[in-house]
Amino acid sequence: MAFKKSIDASVGEMKLNQLRKLFPYIHVDTNTLQRLLDEWPDQVKAEHMRAIFEGHSNIYTIVLISIDGCLNYCNSIINEYEKDDTEYSAVAETIEYLSKLKSTGKRYLNIDGQHRVKTYEDFLKSKFTIEASVFDYVDNGDGAPIAFQLKGVKFKDMPEQTQQTILDTPLTLVMINKATLQDMVDVTIYTNIGEPWNNHERRIIIPSKFNRFLINYMNDNPLMEAMFNNTKNLSGKYSIVKKGDALMVAEWVGYHYNSLKGEIYKWPDDVQLNTQSSVIGLDGHSTSKLNKSTSLISKLVEIVNTASSVKFERTLLDNLFILLTAFDSSSHPLNSFQKKVKISSPSKFLDWFLKMESTLRERDFYNKDKDGNIYIDDFGNKSTNSESFKRKCGAKKVDDIEKRSTLMIQEFNNDYNDLFASGVVSLVDTNNFTKADKLEVAIENDFKDASGNEFTFEELMGSDSIIEGDHQEARDGGNSTSKENLTLRTKRANIRKSNKKMISI
Q: Which end of the chain has fewer CB atoms within 10 angstroms, the N or the C?
């Protein structure tokens, strides 16, 4: 039986000096097509170079992908598929990805042996030295060889003969000339098979549009990095070395996407996340929707980073995003006032949220009798409530997310008068009255609010305006949202008047 050959690769020998000439043209895609690998410390680099000097160079394989070769291959096969085929999308994505790399001057992708390639490059640039005793025998000029100690000597300070010996070191090279992105992903996984890959690691290395969007959003974002540095329990699939931070952000995007579709309590599962990271991506998940998602995530990051000395539970960040998602939707089923909630004071809101969330975690965690005493089981252990908020924080089924949302919004509902009055949060009318509308009504009423109190122009039109547009008759009774139904109130008065059901259960 013959198997279809999807990858064309050649195996050969390349001297270190030849590889040296390729260094500027080699790209290592640690954001997508590779695992997140920490650079070897100098001690490890030195040990590897010692092994190379001892003749072990041929046992280490370097795998490169020829950008030109794979581009030519993909351009030659793309017309074999219909434009609505999955295969067409995969090949087209490969062409786009490789073309961008080529435009930066890169010729090769390094998908295995990137640590070794970086070690060779740094050694030849004299960035570290060998720490073990290694000798090379060089000609002293009269034909008699002498031993030269390489320990502690930088490459640039070694004898010319020794430098040439090092540059002549043979290396085993695999060059892939024909492959698609999926082929590259498969090769990457196969060549790093020593440690099992989780589902997120497998999908995040795909250079898809969503993954590039995700990585670009997270890269060079010190606030994002600071937040995850202060996050506890980033282990297992959420470990940073397994790109668990990217997994959390991908889950938040998927959850917000579901919310926009009306599936407000659906946390994304592996199937959805796989589709999201594929070359096709989520159907209908436009750039504008992604921008809305990242806007919410940026707000979460801003809020969390107001308390740099606090270590946050990973699930607490999820809860905060769930709450922000509810606040961002005027049509959320728990929002009967039909207004979005704006966080005006991130630090004060975080203080409220931390107190509220920790209270919920402890309130019903244990089963208690009617007198408030905790039940003790037959083994002397405290009896925990499987339906408690704290237990639900570790689960992500629809009913789990619904309960978490409901309980948090109930607490917000209890406190919103104080939060609004103190300027921590404000309401955003989705049927917006413009500043021009407010000014027109103010002129008609001699710059007096609904209670007859006079206000200044700055209080009305300034960036920190305390005068808000409001409906004379509540909208939820079917009354008009036109200017004829508009009146002006202070924020505090608007809160008191707000028919006390901004978000009700």
A: N
